[in-house]
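Hi team,

Filling in the usual template for the complex we talked about on Friday. All components are listed, including any nucleic acid strands or ligand strings, so the model treats them as one assembly.

SUBMITTER: L.P.
PURPOSE: interface mapping
COMPONENTS: two
RESIDUES: 331
SEQUENCES:
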Amino acid sequence: MEDSFVVASRAFSSRLLLGTGKFPSGASMAAAIAASGTDIVTVALRRVDPTATGDDILDFIPTQDVLLLPNTSGAQTAEEALRLARLARAAGMPDWIKLEVTPDLRYLLPDPVETLKGCELLVADGFTVLPYMPADPVLAKRLEEAGAATVMPLGSPIGSNQGLTTEAALAIIIEQAGVPVVVDAGIGAPSQAARAMEMGADAVLVNTAIAVAQDPVRMAGAFAEAVRAGRNGYLAGLPAVSDTAQASSPLTGFLQGNA
Amino acid sequence: MEPRESVAIVVNGKPHEVSVGLPLESLLSDLGLDRRFLVVEYNGQALTAHERGTVRLAKGDRLELVRPVAGG
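RESULT (copied from the run log):
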């Protein structure tokens, strides 16, 4: 039976979402997208510089094969996020939006109040909203009630590669969620992605760890395998953890008993 | 034909001179911009591709030209 990742009634086969920032070149990004097997690729929106030359990112994204998910990075308020989302929609991109409201530039932590407000504004405007959020279980429920299609709690600050420093809160969010949980930000190694998936996260979003790897394509493949392994581990059912040994072999002494 | 009056508009926060009544699409051509996924915010309003074709520029217009870039 196929194990699809379903968001807002749309089914995806991959549970690895890929960000496009920081890749050394468009070609390496394109190869990493292919190696990752991802179905959802994020992009940002910025002012055009008419004097700039160089590669256009869209030349390297197979938009017929993957969902282009614009984010609202750079927004510091709910209203700015709505403005960016409307620009993305007017650009002909899907009306799916990764809501990011991060007024603090040192840690890039999402503003919970503006994120909730932004989610309400965007849902009312017809968007399918995937909010990047602090790993706060109460906020996750509030976003869900506001109509978010997923919740995307952070593992640790964006680009920090610290892994799942919010693990205990993520576990509560996963337990309580009525929408898919996508762990976003801070995942720095395939093992950390596998861990999030073993915990029952529905998907992970990875960017920096793949983009800045010495070999981004190989790392994209490694993350794809880790996400599948973690998901399968979760579906198979992890065993209980015990404080003491639980023998895997018979406890009788060598050549003793049952003779 | 007499040259048209030149007026000041603002493009991505910077002053820009255009002929009054210049079609927005002509300005985009003059700037040499790739139109795929290019978005124009015209006096605060995000324009669809169709709406873009109807706009003629006037004094004081504010344009934001935006497009997708790499991001996570």
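MY TAKE: Chain B has two helices and five strands. The beta strands of chain B are 6-11, 14-19, 39-42, 45-47, 62-70.

Thanks, L.
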